[in-house]
Amino acid sequence: MCGIVGLFLKRPELEPELGTHLSRMLATMSARGPDSAGFAVYGSGTAGKVKLTVSAAAAADLEAGLADLGAHLEEPLAPQYHETHAVVSVPEGKLAEARRMVEGDERLSLVGVGTRMELYKEVGLPEKVAERFGLSDMHGTHGVGHTRMATESAVTTRGAHPFSTSLDECLVHNGSLSNHNALRRMLSREGIRFSTENDTEVAAGYLTWRLQQGASLKEALEASLKDLDGFYTFVVGTENGFAVLRDPISCKPAVMAETDDYVAFGSEYRALAGLPGVDKARVFEPKPATVYAWERQ
Amino acid sequence: MPEFDLARSEVRELNQALHALQRETNETHWKVRNPGGKHALAVGLDLPITVEIDGHAGYYCAGMNKEATVIVSGNAGVGVAENMMSGEVRVKGDASQSAGATGHGGLLVIEGNASARCGISMKGIDIVVKGSIGPMSAFMAQAGNLVVFGDAGEALGDSIYEARLFVRGKVSGLGADCIEKEMGPEDREALEGVLAKAGMDGEVTPDDFRLYGSARRLYHFNIDNVDAY
Q1: Is A13 within a domain?
Q2: Element (H, E) at A255
Q3: Which PANTHER family match (chain A) (predicted)?
């Protein structure tokens, strides 16, 4: 099954409330995916710096690993800890080295990288996962979240959504893909790196590959209609917006609500029911095989 | 008039209260507040009562309905009025996928649009959609009437057995074994009957609709294919 939520705010004064809304939306979708959850929040950024979200199984490993990273990079990282995850900022010029260090450190795993994106995911009931990470206190312009009922790969933290294979980009998926193994081989040859056996990671990698070739997000999603075989409702987060795509037979549910203040996405209307002013919102179902995208002005 | 506030009570309490009613009850008109998109509202009713849902309903609203009238003032989620036997379900907003799925009888009116698979496997229900319907509607339809004021999406009536599909607007494409048919007197009478039942007979004229139905080539045994068995 799986549940997806997304919220894109149109007015800056609402940004302090992003986490509160997203966390409620995620909790409502627990019934659709009780085994793990994850979310990406597009918060503040610092010019010239990139944020790495890093996780570890034990708090001591996380602290020790990040201390080593800071020492190696000769940078004060000032990690922001959220349970099993921490967010650190590194200068753009040191990103490649930081990435190499984190990926080479057995204690750490790299969850996501972005100028503004922070990415959190963990096994457990979505409501608890959001609570552990303190989602309701997070600020931002937009965010996406996912509640997972695993089908294609194991219930692990790394198998939880969102998947990110590129800077500030993340993808959440409800459905399952049937040609992901062949696509993974093709994309691997093209230089896209994967860290799980998960079908959704392949979809995220596919979009990254298309974007690297110069496609716009809309073009990349349109191309995926031809190349991805299976069921999907995707919500894609980018630095300045988010996009929605459903497969041509709209196998998986999706409902959206738009007001002057926000655009919200939910697998079911229930997820949107608590949003302020939703009773006056334009509520609609995205059409199959049609790309919907919202971007910050 | 009994009222139920779903911000305070559980859906199960609502449905139990509705199921506990006896045929001779005086509580024939119910209001449900704050539905919040919750699933399975007013399902399995089997008395001639009216239930008004004030807001958006979730999945399977008014499913298996018999005799009751259920009115949703907002949108309805997946499978509204699925497997309806009789009675009436009216959605003032839009309906999600599979509206009226497998319905055996009764009337479903959607005043907005219906998305994919409207009337899938319909078995005698009458469905009126004032807006447009999504792709794959009336898939494997068996009996009943689907009346659409607007347009129909791709693959209308795919693998249809019987049932009449009346569409006033544009049809994006017909599914396997679904063809346009000439509207005979009986078909016209059926259309007029459904429109009258829905209280919309003055709003449109039957002449504006085109009729689609089964070519009957898919499910009938053909002697030329005997070697295949």
Answers
A1: yes
A2: strand A255-258
A3: AMIDOPHOSPHORIBOSYLTRANSFERASE
